[in-house]
Amino acid sequence: MRTYNIFISHSWNYSNQYQRLTELLKQAPYFQHKDYSIPKDDPVHNASLDRELEEAIENKMNFCSVIIVLAGVYADPSYSKWIAKEVRIAQKQSKPILAIEYWGSERTSQFVKENADKIVRWNGSSIVSAIKELYDK
Fold first, then answer.
1. What one-character DSSP code corresponds to residue 136?
2. Could you tell me which InterPro entries the record lists for this protein (predicted)?
3. Could you tell me which residue, 95 or 137, shows the higher pLDDT?
4. Strand arrangement of the beta sheet that strand 3-9 belongs to
5. 71 FRET partner, CA 20 to 30 A, in 9, 49, 112, 127?
6. What CATH number corresponds to the domain at position 87?
């Protein structure tokens, strides 16, 4: 079985959504993945400079075939800044971007929509199918 290398862009302030997505992917049948994301408890989280964190993200994305962006609209302006940086890194590395819209979300970041290669709703089989599709492009 193929292992899909992914990076999930997410806000540390909303890490529960990241956790829910990783659990959803772990439960998906016939789907094996390696997550190169930077969770809240990762030591990189304590990087003293934005540039250090950006370099760590870029290094982790090098190993990935698909970049996933949790596409809700957040009030935290620093998250928007990091989404933009992560999207630009993905584009620089020619990595496809999968945007996931939450259940019940009424709005999605226009920036994310404009830069995503594919957008799906919060549904395990849709997410897994999109990852496989983008991986094989």
1. T
2. ThsB__TIR-like_domain, ThsB_TIR-like_sf, TIR_dom
3. 95
4. 32-35, 3-9, 66-70, 97-101, 118-121
5. 49
6. 3.40.50.2300
**25-54 confidence digits (pLDDT tens):** 999 999 999 999 987 776 565 556 678 888
For 116, the token pair is 């995503």
Place of tokens 């620093």: 78
Query: Residue 36: is it exposed, middle or buried by C-beta count within 10 angstroms (0-12/13-18/19+)?
Result: middle
Q: Where are the beta strands (DSSP E) in the chain?
A: 3-9, 32-35, 66-70, 97-101, 118-121
How many domains, in total, are found in the chain? 1
Structure tokens at 36: 């190169």
Amino acid 84: pLDDT = 87
